[in-house]
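> @MW can you paste both from yesterday?
MW: sure, first one:
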Amino acid sequence: MGAARHRAPMPEVASPRVPAGARLQNLTTVMGSFHGRVLAARLGAEGVIVVLKGMSDGPYPLQGAVEVLVPAEQLELAREILLADEVEDAFVDPSSWQAPPSPPGGPARRRARVHGAPAALVVVVVLTLIIIAFVAAAH
């Protein structure tokens, strides 16, 4: 009971371009390393340097909090990029999100055959029973 709990330091993943002594500020905190890496990629595409702190990358990553840090001089730019993305997402019509058409013989066609098979089987069984009934009635 008297033993002190030891907590491992939170790992950092930094862009290789982070200048030594750069003052980093928290842009946002997300849940999970996947979301952190998506934001880092988006901001990096615009030239923003990103450091992710608190990631757990391993065979079984834990979904913990990940801090997205940027240099203080790029903080406003990073906020503008994220805001612009949110505004664009607000105006996207969800009905325009369409899956590409399936190729001939693709999943849609196979699905029709699978769902059509039981109906064809019922027709064959019913016709067989009708024929058997006529043959039995004739004798």
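MW: second:
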Amino acid sequence: MLITVDFDHTLQFNDGSPNDTTLQMLRMNHKGDQIVIVTSRSFSVGSVKAIQDFAKQHNLNVSNIIHTNGSLKGPICKAVNSQRHFDDCEADLDSVKEQGVDIVNCFDAQAWSREVILHL
């Protein structure tokens, strides 16, 4: 199975810590599946390296990294034949669902609250 996964907040929080809930879901339900990271980030060599390093550190079988540069992810997930997409952004989840791809909402309210408090 090919699955697509958002990066920021879905796999890694702004403070650099991993989203253990998503990682656990991937390990339990998608071990051996091909993973394509689809991030809203703008492309940069630094972004690619950071995502590759994270994937290696957490033993994720990432076959490709796609930067949408802020565009909605639905058409990209459909184009790569994703069967399931993990994300924390409602707009992206809606866009992906409209393309007929199964979605998993990874929004973590506690983590968002913690980050807001840290930045006050």
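> thanks! The chain is about 40% helix and 20% strand.
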